Each structure stands twice: as structure tokens, then as C-alpha cells.
């Protein structure tokens, strides 16, 4: 509807109608095939010769629909726009036009039947406003979508928040005494305490929280993004203990297992640099570099 010269390409995936989830109406077809036919029908109602193709991509949903040419001359654009408005209104009120309940799907016949019925009973009060008001309440997304997953935050700001939260968790548990260490307790690495996201947020300054709230997910997203340092489970924040991480070796073939143990280290270990007890793993077992000399 944006332009008579408009062309389109669509790769149908999730089953949605104009106002919600798509409801199946033909049990003799697969859900995917029925939905493809519905999307093709929309193209034909909008006055396109719809073509179907199959993409060479690793996906089970790879059938695409293409509209390159119109089925009507430019002089009939206003009439077609009214038919489109009627079709949308019919979909909205679930008064959907069907064509005889056939098992097959003939694009031309189906479109002709829908267009004739849509244009046969147009209300007289539907004027040219249909050209400017496509669908009441519809809000298209911006042309440039702003990234809000904490990935665009400055690195120094993220590092500062990570360090503050880690120190908060570490200081929540008293350090183990020397007597415990001499008594044979080998688990001397301080993992700190677990705190709820609310408790963590209460210890951050207002300016930091305000900046995080402008990002989708806020504090929780930032902590989850820093997978190396934190583990967020059931709304509680923990410092990750890499000794408890179990590699999924059962699913890896022998060659990949060997390559993973020889993988290059491209990031410094946060615990080696910032944790008071250092890293809980020896250098050869840690997936991160203990010092710049290990970086590749």
C-alpha cells in the first residue's frame, strides 16, 4: 500500500495474522502450508502476482513469497485500496472469506474470489480516508532500531558496574580464617554470597541505575552478559565458580575435544586480575588468559 511501484519479499516464519496468532481453518493441510497460502492470499488481495521460491538456507521454514508485478493498472489503485481495507476489517472481525473449502490452493482463483467479494459490499461511508489510514492503532517500528541489550554501553562503565557488584557479593561473606586453612579446609576460594537483583540494585547509585533502565533488561541483562563473572539464577546473583562448570564432552567428537583443549585464549581472566584469591582454576584449565603473555 505504500507505493504502486513497491515490490516485496517475505519469508514467513511465525504464524501470525494482522491482530494476533493465526487460527487454522483447514485441517487437511499442514500448518506451515496453510500459513504460506494465507500470506500468498494477502499478496493477491493487495494486487500482486505472487511468486513462490525456496531458499537455500539451513532452515525448515525456507519458502519465500515475492511480489514484483501488479495485477491492475495504476488508475485502479483507489479501488484496490478500498478492497484491502475491507479485507483487513474482515480479518479483524474473524469474518474471513473462504473459497469452497478446497484442499488445493489455486492462487488466481482464490484471489479473484476474495477480491470480488471484498469489493461487492463496500460501505458507502468508506471514503478516500482508507488511503491514508491503513489500520487504526497500527504503529510501525522505526527505520533504525535502537540496540538496547546493554551491548552498546561504554566498556569502562560496564567494567565499573561488574567490579562494584562483584565486590558487593565478595564482602557479603566474611573471609575464611587462617585456622580453617590450617585445619585442612582446602576450599578457601571466596565465592562470596548470593544476593537478589533487588538487593544488588539498592547498593548501586541512582545515576548508574538510571543508565541501566534505559536498556532492555537493565541490570539483569548486564550481569548475564558478563557470563565469565556472574551467574544469575531465579532472580539471584552469584559469582561463578568455574570449578563447578561441567564441560559437555559427551556430545563432542574426539577431534573437537582435542581442539577445544588447545583453543587460543583471547580474553583475560577477570578473576586472575580482580579476585582477592585469584582464579579458582590453574592456568592450563582456565578458558581465559592468566596474564597478557597467554593471549593469542
UniProtKB/TrEMBL annotation:
The reaction(s) this protein catalyses: uridine(44) in tRNA(Ser) + S-adenosyl-L-methionine = 2'-O-methyluridine(44) in tRNA(Ser) + S-adenosyl-L-homocysteine + H(+)
Domain C3H1-type: 263-293
Group of enzyme by EC: transferase
Protein family per UniProt: Belongs to the TRM44 family.
InterPro entries per UniProt: tRNA_uracil_MeTrfase, Znf_CCCH
Keyword annotations of the record: Cytoplasm, Metal-binding, Methyltransferase, S-adenosyl-L-methionine, Transferase, tRNA processing, Zinc, Zinc-finger
Entry protein name: tRNA (uracil-O(2)-)-methyltransferase
GO cellular component, one term: cytoplasm
Function statement: Adenosyl-L-methionine (AdoMet)-dependent tRNA (uracil-O(2)-)-methyltransferase.
Enzyme Commission identifier(s): 2.1.1.211
Keyword Iron: no
GO terms under biological process: tRNA methylation
Gene3D superfamilies, alphabetized: Zinc finger, CCCH-type
Source taxonomy: Eukaryota, Metazoa, Chordata, Craniata, Vertebrata
Keyword S-adenosyl-L-methionine among record annotations: yes
Protein localization: Cytoplasm
GO molecular function, one term: tRNA(Ser) (uridine(44)-2'-O-)-methyltransferase activity
Matches recorded under PANTHER family: TRNA (URACIL-O(2)-)-METHYLTRANSFERASE-RELATED
Zinc finger (C3H1-type) in chain: 263-293
Amino acid at each position: 500500500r505504500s507505493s504502486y511501484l513497491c515490490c516485496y519479499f517475505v519469508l514467513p516464519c511465525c504464524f501470525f495474522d494482522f491482530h494476533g496468532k493465526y487460527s487454522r481453518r483447514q485441517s487437511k493441510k499442514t500448518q506451515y502450508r496453510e500459513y504460506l497460502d494465507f500470506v500468498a492470499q494477502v499478496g493477491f488481495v493487495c494486487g500482486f502476482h505472487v511468486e513462490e521460491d525456496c531458499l537455500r538456507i539451513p532452515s525448515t521454514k525456507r519458502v519465500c513469497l515475492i511480489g514484483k508485478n501488479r495485477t491492475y493498472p495504476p488508475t485502479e489503485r483507489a479501488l484496490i485500496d478500498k478492497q484491502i481495507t475491507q479485507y483487513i476489517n474482515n480479518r479483524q472481525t474473524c469474518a474471513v472469506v473462504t473459497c469452497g473449502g478446497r484442499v488445493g490452493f489455486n492462487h488466481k482463483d482464490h484471489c479473484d474470489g476474495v477480491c470480488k467479494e471484498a469489493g461487492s459490499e463496500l460501505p458507502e461511508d468508506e471514503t478516500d480516508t482508507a488511503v491514508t489510514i491503513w489500520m487504526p492503532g497500527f504503529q510501525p517500528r522505526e527505520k533504525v532500531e535502537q540496540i538496547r541489550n546493554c551491548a552498546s554501553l561504554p566498556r569502562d562503565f560496564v567494567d565499573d558496574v561488574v567490579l562494584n557488584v562483584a565486590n558487593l557479593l565478595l564482602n557479603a561473606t566474611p573471609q575464611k580464617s587462617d585456622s580453617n586453612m590450617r585445619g585442612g579446609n582446602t576450599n578457601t576460594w571466596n565465592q562470596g554470597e548470593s544476593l537478589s537483583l533487588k538487593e544488588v540494585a539498592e547498593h548501586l547509585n541512582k545515576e548508574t541505575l538510571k543508565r541501566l533502565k534505559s536498556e532492555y533488561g537493565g541490570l539483569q541483562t548486564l550481569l548475564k552478559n558478563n557470563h565469565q563473572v556472574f551467574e544469575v539464577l531465579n532472580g539471584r546473583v552469584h559469582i561463578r565458580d568455574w570449578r563447578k562448570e561441567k564441560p559437555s564432552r559427551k556430545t563432542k567428537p574426539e577431534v573437537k575435544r582435542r581442539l577445544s583443549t588447545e583453543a587460543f585464549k583471547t580474553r583475560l581472566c577477570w578473576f586472575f586480575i580482580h579476585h582477592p584469591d585469584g582464579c579458582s582454576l590453574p592456568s592450563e584449565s582456565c578458558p581465559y588468559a592468566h596474564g597478557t603473555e597467554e593471549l593469542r
